[in-house]
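= Tokenised fold =
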Amino acid sequence: MLHVLLLDLKDDPAGIAEYERWHAAGAVPAAVTASIRRAGIEDMRIFRAGNRLVMLMETGAAYDPAAKAAGDAADPDVQAWETLMDRFQQTIPAAVPGTKWTEAGQIFALHEQDGA
């Protein structure tokens, strides 16, 4: 299943550059990527336009967001990563209070249109 999530970075060019360095190939701590994979997330990509981030997350049948959140809360390595990332991130205006990444709802699919 495809999930599309949105988050903003603080509008600080130096901070944005540092955030990108932390996400370069091989820079994310192994414990963090292992936790992502253990949760049933098969692929994850983050794109940036200005200070807006878009995360594409492909999950398998075993993915349970509540279990992922509980596991992350109990994992000191993941918590250290989240604390570090919080220095750079801010929620989007449409975010539900208490959430970080906001899931976007699909409004169009070409295969659902006439002529598919």
